[in-house]
Protein backbone atom coordinates (compact mmCIF):
# COMPACT_ATOMS: atom_id res chain seq x y z
CA UNK A 1 0.00 0.00 0.00
CA UNK A 2 1.11 3.57 -0.68
CA UNK A 3 0.59 7.04 0.70
CA UNK A 4 0.50 9.47 -2.20
CA UNK A 5 0.35 13.23 -2.23
CA UNK A 6 -0.04 15.40 -5.32
CA UNK A 7 1.51 18.78 -6.12
CA UNK A 8 -1.77 20.01 -7.65
CA UNK A 9 -5.42 19.14 -7.05
CA UNK A 10 -6.25 16.02 -9.04
CA UNK A 11 -9.64 15.56 -10.72
CA UNK A 12 -10.35 12.09 -12.08
CA UNK A 13 -12.07 12.14 -15.44
CA UNK A 14 -15.43 10.44 -15.95
CA UNK A 15 -13.82 8.07 -18.41
CA UNK A 16 -11.73 6.59 -15.64
CA UNK A 17 -12.97 3.70 -13.57
CA UNK A 18 -14.06 5.16 -10.24
CA UNK A 19 -11.35 4.38 -7.71
CA UNK A 20 -13.41 4.96 -4.60
CA UNK A 21 -15.44 7.59 -2.82
CA UNK A 22 -13.14 10.46 -3.81
CA UNK A 23 -13.11 11.93 -7.32
CA UNK A 24 -10.93 14.90 -6.37
CA UNK A 25 -7.69 14.66 -4.44
CA UNK A 26 -6.49 17.71 -2.58
CA UNK A 27 -2.97 18.90 -3.28
CA UNK A 28 -0.46 18.36 -0.51
CA UNK A 29 -2.58 15.92 1.51
CA UNK A 30 -1.59 12.28 1.88
CA UNK A 31 -3.99 9.67 0.50
CA UNK A 32 -3.84 5.95 1.13
CA UNK A 33 -3.99 3.88 -2.07
CA UNK A 34 -4.04 0.14 -2.55
CA UNK A 35 -1.24 -1.12 -4.77
CA UNK A 36 -3.67 -1.91 -7.60
CA UNK A 37 -5.16 1.57 -7.41
CA UNK A 38 -1.70 3.12 -7.61
CA UNK A 39 -1.01 0.94 -10.66
CA UNK A 40 -4.20 2.33 -12.23
CA UNK A 41 -2.95 5.90 -11.83
CA UNK A 42 0.27 4.97 -13.58
CA UNK A 43 -1.66 3.11 -16.30
CA UNK A 44 -3.81 6.20 -16.91
CA UNK A 45 -0.64 8.33 -17.19
CA UNK A 46 -2.02 10.94 -14.81
CA UNK A 47 -0.46 14.26 -15.75
CA UNK A 48 -0.38 15.68 -12.20
CA UNK A 49 3.07 14.93 -10.79
CA UNK A 50 3.28 13.03 -7.54
CA UNK A 51 4.68 15.13 -4.73
CA UNK A 52 5.55 12.04 -2.72
CA UNK A 53 4.94 8.29 -2.81
CA UNK A 54 5.65 6.24 0.28
CA UNK A 55 5.08 2.65 1.39
CA UNK A 56 2.95 2.61 4.53
CA UNK A 57 3.35 -0.85 6.05
CA UNK A 58 6.07 0.26 8.51
CA UNK A 59 3.63 2.77 10.00
CA UNK A 60 0.83 0.26 10.63
CA UNK A 61 0.19 -0.56 14.27
CA UNK A 62 0.33 -4.37 14.53
CA UNK A 63 -2.11 -6.19 16.73
CA UNK A 64 -1.01 -8.43 19.60
CA UNK A 65 -4.10 -10.07 21.05
CA UNK A 66 -4.47 -10.49 24.78
CA UNK A 67 -7.53 -12.15 26.23
CA UNK A 68 -7.41 -9.97 29.33
CA UNK A 69 -5.62 -6.91 27.98
CA UNK A 70 -7.06 -3.62 26.69
CA UNK A 71 -9.18 -3.69 23.56
CA UNK A 72 -9.49 -0.97 20.95
CA UNK A 73 -10.37 -0.03 17.39
CA UNK A 74 -9.03 -2.41 14.77
CA UNK A 75 -8.95 -1.82 11.00
CA UNK A 76 -8.87 -4.95 8.81
CA UNK A 77 -7.78 -4.91 5.17
CA UNK A 78 -7.70 -7.92 2.85
CA UNK A 79 -6.22 -6.65 -0.40
CA UNK A 80 -5.84 -9.94 -2.24
CA UNK A 81 -8.81 -8.91 -4.39
CA UNK A 82 -10.80 -12.10 -4.85
CA UNK A 83 -14.34 -12.77 -3.66
CA UNK A 84 -13.31 -15.91 -1.81
CA UNK A 85 -10.57 -14.01 0.01
CA UNK A 86 -13.10 -11.55 1.43
CA UNK A 87 -15.39 -14.40 2.50
CA UNK A 88 -12.50 -16.14 4.27
CA UNK A 89 -11.84 -12.92 6.22
CA UNK A 90 -15.39 -12.64 7.62
CA UNK A 91 -14.70 -14.96 10.58
CA UNK A 92 -11.70 -12.90 11.68
CA UNK A 93 -13.85 -9.78 12.01
CA UNK A 94 -16.50 -11.57 14.07
CA UNK A 95 -13.99 -13.40 16.27
CA UNK A 96 -12.35 -10.08 17.18
CA UNK A 97 -15.69 -8.34 17.71
CA UNK A 98 -16.92 -11.18 19.93
CA UNK A 99 -13.79 -10.70 22.06
CA UNK A 100 -14.32 -7.02 22.68
CA UNK A 101 -12.72 -5.18 19.77
CA UNK A 102 -14.40 -2.45 17.74
CA UNK A 103 -13.96 -3.72 14.19
CA UNK A 104 -13.74 -1.56 11.07
CA UNK A 105 -13.02 -2.62 7.49
CA UNK A 106 -10.75 -0.99 4.92
CA UNK A 107 -11.87 -1.91 1.41
CA UNK A 108 -11.66 -1.05 -2.24
CA UNK A 109 -15.03 0.23 -3.42
CA UNK A 110 -16.00 -2.83 -5.49
CA UNK A 111 -15.44 -5.16 -2.51
CA UNK A 112 -17.26 -3.12 0.13
CA UNK A 113 -20.56 -4.94 -0.52
CA UNK A 114 -19.00 -8.10 0.91
CA UNK A 115 -19.10 -6.46 4.32
CA UNK A 116 -22.67 -5.21 4.28
CA UNK A 117 -25.15 -6.42 6.87
CA UNK A 118 -22.82 -7.54 9.65
CA UNK A 119 -23.81 -5.80 12.90
CA UNK A 120 -20.34 -6.36 14.37
CA UNK A 121 -18.75 -4.18 11.64
CA UNK A 122 -18.79 -0.56 12.85
CA UNK A 123 -17.77 1.08 9.58
CA UNK A 124 -16.36 0.46 6.10
CA UNK A 125 -13.61 2.84 4.99
CA UNK A 126 -13.23 3.06 1.21
CA UNK A 127 -9.87 3.39 -0.51
CA UNK A 128 -8.42 5.82 -1.51
CA UNK A 129 -8.85 7.84 1.68
CA UNK A 130 -6.98 10.34 3.83
CA UNK A 131 -3.93 8.69 5.35
CA UNK A 132 -4.10 10.78 8.51
CA UNK A 133 -7.51 9.35 9.42
CA UNK A 134 -6.22 5.79 8.99
CA UNK A 135 -3.15 6.43 11.09
CA UNK A 136 -4.81 8.38 13.89
CA UNK A 137 -8.26 6.85 14.30
CA UNK A 138 -7.34 3.19 14.85
CA UNK A 139 -5.39 1.39 17.53
CA UNK A 140 -4.46 -1.58 15.35
CA UNK A 141 -4.07 -2.24 11.61
CA UNK A 142 -4.36 -5.76 10.22
CA UNK A 143 -2.96 -5.75 6.68
CA UNK A 144 -3.69 -8.97 4.78
CA UNK A 145 -2.51 -8.17 1.25
CA UNK A 146 -0.84 -11.55 0.72
CA UNK A 147 -2.62 -13.78 3.18
CA UNK A 148 -4.31 -16.18 0.76
CA UNK A 149 -2.41 -16.26 -2.52
CA UNK A 150 0.88 -14.51 -2.00
CA UNK A 151 3.01 -17.35 -0.74
CA UNK A 152 3.58 -20.86 -2.08
CA UNK A 153 4.94 -22.96 0.75
CA UNK A 154 3.97 -26.58 1.19
CA UNK A 155 3.21 -26.06 4.87
CA UNK A 156 0.58 -23.44 4.06
CA UNK A 157 -2.04 -22.92 6.76
CA UNK A 158 -5.75 -22.44 6.22
CA UNK A 159 -6.11 -18.68 5.63
CA UNK A 160 -8.32 -17.93 8.65
CA UNK A 161 -5.87 -19.80 10.89
CA UNK A 162 -3.00 -17.76 9.51
CA UNK A 163 -4.96 -14.53 10.04
CA UNK A 164 -5.58 -15.49 13.66
CA UNK A 165 -1.92 -16.34 14.17
CA UNK A 166 -0.89 -12.94 12.77
CA UNK A 167 -3.17 -11.31 15.36
CA UNK A 168 -1.59 -13.28 18.18
CA UNK A 169 -4.49 -15.73 18.59
CA UNK A 170 -3.82 -19.46 18.76
CA UNK A 171 -5.96 -20.91 15.93
CA UNK A 172 -6.50 -24.10 17.93
CA UNK A 173 -8.23 -22.06 20.63
CA UNK A 174 -11.05 -21.09 18.23
CA UNK A 175 -13.79 -23.68 17.60
CA UNK A 176 -14.18 -24.76 14.00
CA UNK A 177 -17.74 -23.44 13.73
CA UNK A 178 -16.47 -19.91 14.46
CA UNK A 179 -14.19 -20.11 11.42
CA UNK A 180 -17.05 -19.79 8.96
CA UNK A 181 -19.53 -16.92 8.90
CA UNK A 182 -22.61 -16.75 6.68
CA UNK A 183 -23.84 -13.51 5.08
CA UNK A 184 -26.88 -11.70 6.48
CA UNK A 185 -29.43 -10.89 3.81
CA UNK A 186 -31.96 -8.08 3.77
CA UNK A 187 -35.67 -8.84 3.30
CA UNK A 188 -35.42 -7.54 -0.28
CA UNK A 189 -32.47 -9.80 -1.10
CA UNK A 190 -34.33 -12.77 0.33
CA UNK A 191 -37.48 -11.86 -1.57
CA UNK A 192 -35.72 -11.56 -4.91
CA UNK A 193 -33.93 -14.87 -4.39
CA UNK A 194 -37.21 -16.56 -3.52
CA UNK A 195 -38.95 -15.19 -6.63
CA UNK A 196 -36.19 -16.14 -9.05
CA UNK A 197 -36.49 -19.70 -10.35
CA UNK A 198 -39.54 -20.19 -8.13
CA UNK A 199 -40.37 -23.81 -7.30
CA UNK A 200 -37.24 -25.11 -9.02
CA UNK A 201 -34.58 -27.28 -7.43
CA UNK A 202 -31.32 -25.46 -8.01
CA UNK A 203 -27.77 -26.55 -8.68
CA UNK A 204 -24.85 -24.20 -9.25
CA UNK A 205 -21.73 -24.71 -11.32
CA UNK A 206 -18.95 -22.11 -11.47
CA UNK A 207 -17.48 -22.44 -14.93
CA UNK A 208 -14.09 -20.87 -14.07
CA UNK A 209 -12.35 -18.72 -11.51
CA UNK A 210 -10.16 -15.65 -11.61
CA UNK A 211 -6.91 -17.46 -12.46
CA UNK A 212 -6.41 -19.66 -15.49
CA UNK A 213 -4.27 -22.08 -13.51
CA UNK A 214 -7.22 -22.88 -11.19
CA UNK A 215 -9.78 -23.27 -14.01
CA UNK A 216 -10.65 -25.96 -16.52
CA UNK A 217 -10.30 -25.02 -20.20
CA UNK A 218 -13.55 -23.79 -21.76
CA UNK A 219 -14.43 -26.97 -23.67
CA UNK A 220 -13.52 -29.12 -20.67
CA UNK A 221 -15.59 -26.98 -18.29
CA UNK A 222 -18.60 -27.06 -20.65
CA UNK A 223 -18.34 -30.86 -20.88
CA UNK A 224 -18.50 -31.15 -17.08
CA UNK A 225 -21.48 -28.79 -16.93
CA UNK A 226 -23.34 -30.64 -19.68
CA UNK A 227 -22.74 -33.99 -17.99
CA UNK A 228 -24.20 -32.63 -14.74
CA UNK A 229 -27.31 -31.28 -16.50
CA UNK A 230 -27.91 -34.55 -18.34
CA UNK A 231 -27.26 -36.76 -15.30
CA UNK A 232 -29.57 -34.75 -13.01
CA UNK A 233 -32.53 -33.55 -15.12
CA UNK A 234 -34.65 -32.69 -12.07
CA UNK A 235 -32.14 -30.03 -11.05
CA UNK A 236 -32.08 -26.65 -12.79
CA UNK A 237 -28.40 -25.87 -13.27
CA UNK A 238 -27.04 -22.32 -13.29
CA UNK A 239 -23.57 -21.91 -14.74
CA UNK A 240 -22.04 -18.85 -13.08
CA UNK A 241 -19.63 -16.67 -15.01
CA UNK A 242 -18.09 -13.26 -14.41
CA UNK A 243 -16.26 -10.53 -16.34
CA UNK A 244 -12.97 -12.44 -16.51
CA UNK A 245 -14.18 -15.52 -18.37
CA UNK A 246 -13.85 -15.46 -22.15
CA UNK A 247 -16.98 -15.90 -24.26
CA UNK A 248 -16.02 -19.41 -25.35
CA UNK A 249 -17.03 -20.52 -21.87
CA UNK A 250 -20.60 -19.20 -21.89
CA UNK A 251 -21.71 -17.54 -25.14
CA UNK A 252 -23.06 -20.67 -26.88
CA UNK A 253 -26.07 -22.34 -25.18
CA UNK A 254 -25.19 -25.62 -23.52
CA UNK A 255 -28.06 -27.67 -24.96
CA UNK A 256 -29.96 -29.33 -22.09
CA UNK A 257 -33.13 -27.39 -21.22
CA UNK A 258 -32.39 -27.53 -17.50
CA UNK A 259 -29.15 -25.51 -17.72
CA UNK A 260 -28.24 -21.90 -18.40
CA UNK A 261 -25.25 -19.60 -18.13
CA UNK A 262 -25.76 -16.49 -16.04
CA UNK A 263 -23.73 -13.58 -14.76
CA UNK A 264 -24.95 -11.80 -11.63
CA UNK A 265 -24.34 -8.05 -11.43
CA UNK A 266 -25.48 -8.15 -7.81
CA UNK A 267 -23.42 -10.85 -6.07
CA UNK A 268 -25.55 -10.74 -2.93
CA UNK A 269 -28.59 -11.94 -4.92
CA UNK A 270 -26.50 -14.85 -6.16
CA UNK A 271 -25.48 -15.67 -2.59
CA UNK A 272 -29.10 -15.63 -1.45
CA UNK A 273 -29.94 -18.00 -4.32
CA UNK A 274 -27.11 -20.32 -3.30
CA UNK A 275 -28.86 -20.59 0.06
CA UNK A 276 -31.54 -22.56 -1.88
CA UNK A 277 -29.03 -24.82 -3.66
CA UNK A 278 -29.24 -28.59 -3.44
CA UNK A 279 -25.77 -29.05 -4.91
CA UNK A 280 -22.81 -26.88 -5.96
CA UNK A 281 -19.85 -27.80 -8.16
CA UNK A 282 -16.89 -25.46 -8.55
CA UNK A 283 -13.14 -25.01 -8.83
CA UNK A 284 -11.29 -23.24 -6.02
CA UNK A 285 -13.42 -20.11 -6.18
CA UNK A 286 -16.17 -17.98 -4.66
CA UNK A 287 -18.77 -20.74 -4.99
CA UNK A 288 -16.68 -23.20 -2.96
CA UNK A 289 -16.48 -20.70 -0.13
CA UNK A 290 -20.12 -19.58 -0.27
CA UNK A 291 -21.33 -23.19 -0.34
CA UNK A 292 -19.00 -23.97 2.56
CA UNK A 293 -20.17 -21.20 4.87
CA UNK A 294 -23.82 -21.94 4.01
CA UNK A 295 -23.08 -25.66 4.65
CA UNK A 296 -24.34 -26.67 1.20
CA UNK A 297 -23.10 -29.86 -0.50
CA UNK A 298 -20.25 -28.96 -2.83
CA UNK A 299 -17.99 -30.95 -5.15
CA UNK A 300 -14.70 -29.08 -5.40
CA UNK A 301 -12.45 -29.30 -8.48
CA UNK A 302 -8.93 -28.81 -7.17
CA UNK A 303 -5.59 -28.13 -8.85
CA UNK A 304 -2.66 -26.08 -7.52
CA UNK A 305 -4.25 -25.51 -4.11
CA UNK A 306 -5.41 -28.23 -1.77
CA UNK A 307 -8.80 -28.79 -0.14
CA UNK A 308 -7.12 -29.79 3.12
CA UNK A 309 -6.36 -26.10 3.66
CA UNK A 310 -8.91 -24.09 1.67
CA UNK A 311 -11.97 -26.23 2.52
CA UNK A 312 -10.81 -27.38 5.95
CA UNK A 313 -13.80 -25.93 7.85
CA UNK A 314 -16.50 -26.55 5.24
CA UNK A 315 -18.85 -29.45 5.97
CA UNK A 316 -20.35 -31.38 3.04
CA UNK A 317 -17.36 -30.72 0.79
CA UNK A 318 -16.32 -33.51 -1.60
CA UNK A 319 -12.94 -32.77 -3.25
CA UNK A 320 -11.68 -34.12 -6.56
CA UNK A 321 -7.92 -33.65 -6.48
CA UNK A 322 -5.64 -35.72 -8.71
CA UNK A 323 -2.39 -35.16 -6.85
CA UNK A 324 -0.96 -38.22 -8.61
CA UNK A 325 -0.82 -36.16 -11.82
CA UNK A 326 1.96 -33.93 -10.51
CA UNK A 327 4.76 -34.76 -8.04
CA UNK A 328 4.68 -31.29 -6.46
CA UNK A 329 0.89 -30.99 -6.08
CA UNK A 330 -0.42 -29.04 -4.28
CA UNK A 331 2.12 -26.35 -5.14
CA UNK A 332 0.08 -23.39 -3.79
CA UNK A 333 1.18 -21.33 -6.77
CA UNK A 334 -1.22 -18.62 -7.91
CA UNK A 335 0.35 -17.34 -11.13
CA UNK A 336 -2.02 -16.45 -13.96
CA UNK A 337 0.00 -18.51 -16.40
CA UNK A 338 1.38 -21.98 -15.79
CA UNK A 339 4.42 -21.37 -13.58
CA UNK A 340 8.01 -22.34 -14.22
CA UNK A 341 7.94 -24.67 -11.21
CA UNK A 342 5.81 -27.23 -13.09
CA UNK A 343 7.64 -30.47 -13.95
CA UNK A 344 8.86 -30.57 -17.58
CA UNK A 345 6.47 -31.95 -20.20
CA UNK A 346 6.81 -32.92 -23.85
CA UNK A 347 4.54 -30.09 -24.94
CA UNK A 348 4.18 -26.67 -23.28
CA UNK A 349 1.51 -26.49 -20.59
CA UNK A 350 -1.30 -23.95 -20.58
CA UNK A 351 -3.25 -25.50 -17.69
CA UNK A 352 -2.54 -27.31 -14.46
CA UNK A 353 -2.07 -31.04 -15.10
CA UNK A 354 -3.96 -31.85 -11.91
CA UNK A 355 -7.03 -29.97 -13.17
CA UNK A 356 -6.76 -31.60 -16.59
CA UNK A 357 -7.20 -35.07 -15.06
CA UNK A 358 -10.76 -34.29 -13.90
CA UNK A 359 -13.42 -36.04 -16.00
CA UNK A 360 -17.14 -35.29 -16.38
CA UNK A 361 -17.94 -38.84 -15.35
CA UNK A 362 -16.16 -38.62 -12.00
CA UNK A 363 -17.78 -35.27 -11.24
CA UNK A 364 -21.21 -36.83 -11.80
CA UNK A 365 -20.20 -39.79 -9.64
CA UNK A 366 -19.01 -37.45 -6.87
CA UNK A 367 -22.35 -35.63 -6.87
CA UNK A 368 -24.21 -38.93 -6.56
CA UNK A 369 -22.04 -39.97 -3.63
CA UNK A 370 -22.35 -36.63 -1.88
CA UNK A 371 -26.11 -36.25 -2.36
CA UNK A 372 -27.65 -39.70 -3.00
CA UNK A 373 -31.15 -38.21 -3.00
CA UNK A 374 -30.52 -36.46 -6.31
How would you describe what is shown here?
The protein has 374 residues and is an alpha/beta fold. The protein folds into three domains: 2-56, no CATH class; 73-179, Rossmann fold (3-Layer(aba) Sandwich); 197-370, Glycogen Phosphorylase B (Rossmann fold). It has twelve helices and 16 strands. The strands form four sheets. It has a six-stranded parallel sheet with strand order 13-12-11-14-15-16, sandwiched between helices. Strands 5-1-4-9 form a four-stranded antiparallel sheet. Helix 2 (83-98) packs across helix 4 (159-166), helix 2 (83-98) runs parallel beside helix 9 (286-293) and helix 6 packs across helix 12 (360-370). The protein starts with a strand and ends with a helix. The mean pLDDT is 90.
Key features of this structure:
6-stranded parallel beta sheet; alpha/beta; Rossmann fold; 4-stranded antiparallel beta sheet; 374 residues; 19% strand; single chain; 3 domains; 12 helices
Amino acid sequence: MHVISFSEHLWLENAHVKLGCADVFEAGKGYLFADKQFDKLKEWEVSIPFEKVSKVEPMFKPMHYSAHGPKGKVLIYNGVGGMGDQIMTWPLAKILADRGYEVHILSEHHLALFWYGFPWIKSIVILPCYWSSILENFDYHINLEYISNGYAHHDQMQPIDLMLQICGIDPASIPDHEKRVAPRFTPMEKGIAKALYANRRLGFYQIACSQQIRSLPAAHSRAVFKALAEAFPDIYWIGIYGPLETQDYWLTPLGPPNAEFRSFERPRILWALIERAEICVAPDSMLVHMAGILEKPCVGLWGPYGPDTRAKYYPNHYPIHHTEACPISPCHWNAIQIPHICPPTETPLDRCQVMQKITPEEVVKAVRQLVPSL
